[in-house]
Amino acid sequence: MGYRVEVFDKNLKRIGEIDEWISLDFTVRLAQEGIWQLLIKDDTPQSDLIEKGGGIAIWQDGVSKPLLSGQVDVFQKYWTKVQHTGPGSLYIGGKCHNALTYRRLAFPDPSKAVSQQYLARLPSRLVRKTYGPSAIYEELYNALGSGALANRRVSGLNMTAPVEPPLPAYPITDTLRFDVIGAKLEEWFKARNVAYRFIYNATTQLVDLEIFTPRDRSKEIRFSPELGNLREYIWTLNAPKVTRAIVGCAGENLDRYYYQKVDSAAEAEWGMQVEQFIDRRDIQLVVDKATGQPKKSDATMTAADFENAKEAAEEAASNALEEGVMSGNFQIYPIDTADCLFGRDYFVGDKVTVAVDGTEYSDVVREVTISVDDGGNTQDVNPKIGQQGSGEPLNLYKTVYDMQKKLRKLEARM
User: Fold this and answer.
1) What is the pLDDT of residues 134-160, one digit of tens each?
2) Measuring CA to CA, how many Å separate 271 from each of 76, 151, 274, 326, 346?
3) Is 343 left (phi over 0), alpha (psi -120 to 50) or beta?
4) Given the DSSP bridges, would you call strands 125-129 and 179-180 parallel, antiparallel or unpaired?
5) How far apart are CA 12 and CA 51, in angstroms?
6) Which tops the pLDDT comparison, 254 or 183?
7) CB 94 within 8 A of CB 36
8) What's the first-to-final CA gap in the chain, in angstroms?
9) Quick one: which of 132, 12, 111, 138 has its CA closest to 66?
10) Please, are residues 191 and 140 in contact by the beta-carbon 8 Å criterion?
11) In which element (H, E) is residue 357 found?
């Protein structure tokens, strides 16, 4: 699959095409900032095309819209006496046009300048929309579109209000007070499954806002070794880090009350016991030496306070067990094939299916990283499905455990 790079100036006017580079790497992300980096020989007509304020649009053969577009935000000269000789090479990089949303704050009153925010009716602004796409559009329209203050408007944007259905869908309610809009839109996507992207339109030479609901393509787009579109997969099961949480409450020495909670199922499955101590002297419980049960640390505590304290001890233990619970995850590394191409057949936001070791798992494609060689051909396509590769991976213990069980049964038959 071939790629090409078009260049536009700071006014979004197309000024040329780059078809000679050393390497091109870019990452398309769902409702987040994508990134791109181009390594090109310096001091050439093509290296001179990209200037401050300008940017690029990355096209894939056979796809009607760019996969990614965005402004340049870094130039880095690179020279060595071994490889990057002569004039040296130039790293040019930037973020996709979704970066526009991370450069704007949600004012309590978008119609007023910063110096007049004290005139806002409330210190924070309540957003309550019955249709999620309209909430996204309205926030962007008032922060950087034609509805924004003149000195906050971003030129060259094409923003069309979504048509609301007869019945409300994807309702969004939130409170805004100088939040980074891009980060807030990430939260809205996770809560209501409504995404957006800004992408360069080569015909109008504007940047279009697209608001969409991810598609469920789990029946059509499948990855498995049998289909020949998986280069590698890895699944991992991790033993529990905590099976016995011990909470130390108020009191000193022998008066101190200790509460313990045990994950018996994990201990039975893995055959291990792992204790952890949680120091919570703020929980006002002491031990009744006659019974070993908790009692009020202060006689003035109400019955409600006493019950709340017991619940706090139980919650502290539960949280420790939850953080240390046995976990499972898997990583997949698909490859493009003639029957399954990123950009043409699926895109970020689409729900796809992974079938390995007799188990199927369906989730959303969150991002795709692509590396392109100097001939414009794909070297690597690396989708991340679900929370794979994120800072907050999903615990897929049951799914991975099923993979292990089915693999063992298969090995036994063989």
Assistant:
1) 999 999 999 999 999 999 999 999 999
2) 54, 64, 10, 12, 43
3) left
4) unpaired
5) 12
6) 183
7) yes
8) 39
9) 12
10) no
11) none
